[in-house]
Amino acid sequence: MPWEAGLQRQLKTVLCDLDDCLYRSPEMPELVRENIQRYMREKLGVPKDEVTSLCLSAYSNFGTTMAGLVATGYHIDVDDWHAHVHHVLPYERYLRKDDALRNLLQKIKLPLYVFTNGDRKHAEICLRLMGITDCFKGVVCYESIMDAAEDKGYVHHGVPVVCKPSGKAIELALEQADNASAETTIFLDDSTRNIVAGHQKGLTTVLVGRTGMDTGADAEILNLLDLPIVAPDIWKMLTTSKGIESERSDISHTTILKNRSGDTIAADARVSVVTG
Fold it and tell me: How do residues 219-263 score in pLDDT, each as one tens digit?
């Protein structure tokens, strides 16, 4: 089931989110949430009965909990925050080498970049454990976005942290992806608000991990392995010469294609995915 002809673009770059997109582990986000709330209580002195609501408000209004806390007046040592929120995670327990994902990424003919609100060390650990570090040309992360944002004067009292879903963060990510153009970039993310922001900036967007959401996404897939179906133009053609074989596996997922007005073009619960 090809992408609708009206959505075909000359795509040249791929931006892909990390957490809950390149990998999905229900335990990891729960552990991050626990670490954040513990940090708020123990390091920032937030009363226990206020932690949950403040955490939700900060995340909802500013893109990340840390961004919201800093914006509302909390002084946070960023390196200390990352060390206590991410770097203590039991990565090895939940992340493993993913051969299917690696095969998929290696068959994409365009340069790929990770685009995450997380810090660089967190991203590097995740990519290494999944065995896909070399599949990406670069990592756009908290440090690289903030360094660039400060250079451009985007960071100020009202906006102390620049991150997704900020349009400025998306602009900086494109610059760091070899000055990619929004019109020729495909953006993969599990966050509906990040997808909305990407759509507004003119990127071709694919919502990963859920379907039936009102985001303006060009396509929605439940599994990243369905990407060749919704974006065939970024896929390397398989060589079928002697000695080279291809393997196909049928995976039952729901894949939804939409046009730029948000109308559903097609929905298919049976997707054929090239895995090797």
Answer: 999 999 999 988 888 876 443 333 333 333 333 344 555 544 555
pTM over 0.70: yes
Task: Name the fold adopted by 28-85.
Answer: DNA polymerase; domain 1 (1.10.150)
The CATH T-level fold of domain 5-24+95-274 is Rossmann fold (3.40.50)
What pLDDT does 1 receive?
35
Task: Give exposure, 116-128, as e/b (b: 16+ Cβ within 10 Å).
Answer: bbbbbbbbebbbe
End-to-end CA distance of the chain: 19
- Dihedral (C-alpha) 95, 12, 168, 262: value to the nearest 10 degrees? -90
Hey, where are the domains in the chain? 5-24+95-274, 28-85
- Torsions phi, psi for 15 (to 5 deg): -110, 125
d(CA 193, CA 68): 16
Q: What is the pLDDT of residue 262?
A: 52
Phi, psi of 45 (to 5 degrees): 75, 25
Which residues contact residue 141 at a Cβ distance below 8 angstroms, ignoring those fewer than 6 apart? 114, 116, 117, 118, 119, 120, 122, 123
Residue ranges of the chain whose pLDDT lies below 70: 1-8, 236-276
